[in-house]
Amino acid sequence: MEQKKDITILPGDPAALVVETSNLSGKIKFSSGCIVHPTASIKATNGPIEFGESNLIEEQVVIENLSEDPLIIGPNNHFEIGCVIHASSVGKNNVFGVRSIVETGAKITDGCSIGPKCLVKPFEKLSPRTVLCGNLNCERRSNDDPPSIASQMDHLRLVIPKYNKIIK
Amino acid sequence: MASLYQSDRNKYECSCGAWDSLGLLYFCRHCSVTRCSSCVLVELDCFLCQNCLESAPVTEARLKKNRCFACNFCPFCATVLTKKTCVNSGNTFLSCGVCRWSTRDAGIPDQSKTTTDWPMPENPLSKRLNEISGHFKDLETREKARKEKDTTKRRTNFGGFDASKFSDRFGVQKMIQARKKAIETPASTVESHVATADVPALPDDVFESTAAIQLPLNVINKQPLVEETTLLPVRLPLKGRKAIRCRKCEHHLLKLDYSPNAINYKISAFARNTIPEIRLSRGVELVVGQQSSILLTLLNHSENGMQIILTPDADDSAFEIVTESIDITLSPLDAADVLLGAEESKYSAASSSSSSNIVFQRRNRVGIRLDLCPKVDFKCLPLSLKFKNIHTTAKLETSADWKMVKVRVGLDK
Description:
A: mainly beta, twelve-stranded parallel β-sheet, globular, B: five-stranded antiparallel β-sheet, 22 strands, 16% helix, Trimer_LpxA-like_sf (chain A), DCTN6 (chain A), dynein complex binding (chain A), cytoplasm (chain A)
């Protein structure tokens, strides 16, 4: 059954860009500066989802809230292509690599970097600046946040409205 | 694509008697024979860094211990590290894009922008190691001098004169003096290690404490004695680029262009460019005692036209020959014609063949049918391939000779 869309886009500068070809369902709130690419799926199945400022959600990303509590995602997170997020909370400045999976109930704090195809187990709590990488899911602690993607976001803000319809 | 993915189905006989697929053979035009990997000389052309493509001559590479001073890889995940600039100070540090390891983690101070060679900490034992290697060099010269003294003939008093009174025209005196000196000077001494009973005890928690962060095994393999916090960047090893020579005439068979950036060959004598390629064009179904046919495709990859006579070998008498031999002329492949879609009639007119076993003929390709009558079930079809190609000889004035190569066509499914 198709769930009713209830999308709130908070005003701000720069404005959030949510394209029409993304798959949104349920109660979702986007703060200013967020960018949602086409074919990204954000499903507030059981509880609502709230995005902080300047989140980048790329193609074929699945972000789903399966619990009844709201899923609050902090600012400046980068969800790379094809990652699957079922986390219960996400902090700020995190990078979710290509096709990485965050299982149900996992808690992601700040400055974490989850490498391509890496897995965060159910109900696991990642401490700040954890790095997961490699096919063995190696875990280590970085002493720096992941590099800023502000310039990439600025470029996308110019390009995306040229080729996509934006939800107002 | 079958020639790429199943290149080992059909084997060609090398001049040394080994069998190999066509793609792995060379053809020496000076000896006019095929060469395989076991009958060529492989030599090191130059050393180069696979990351920055900087090439180094052999002596320099040895001095640098076969490592590139400018490029490093991550000790944690073996990815090549990238240089990052700090926004505040303008200094640079190395960082890994995959696991976010950086030289700051290792406690290495940032370097100025102009640094190309990333500094390496010195081996704490280097002084001792140099001492020992110096001592062994000294021993070597002494031993050599003593051996020379024993083996060379002693010529004293040329006609009553002392040899030392002659002017040292040929440097003999100098040599003798050097040898004398080497023997007479006392040998250098290196203090040897002394066994001690005073060994510090292991900390109590060594077997109990589990590190919060488990290092992957390959990291432990690379730097086994360090903890994660003290992992250091590893200099990228240089790669050797090889050139291949014919073992008999020592002419180059394979040599890359001088510049490491270029990917084209300066000299390439692949057998594929001289010998026609044989492929099975259809799956084979053989019935013992009945006449069956095998469909093959012949390809000419050389730049010249080629005359071919294909004969089945019935040495092992696994089958009875019905098609005695096939005589074909194959035109060369003109890449421009393929691109422009030139008429194929141009090619078919150029080829002349009397055999009725030709299925099709297209550009540099010809499909043939070999009829035979199997006596037993066999998995490998032996063929004799005679070909005449102007490319088989390095001499310009002589006309092309017939060359023969034996081929085994694999009939397995």
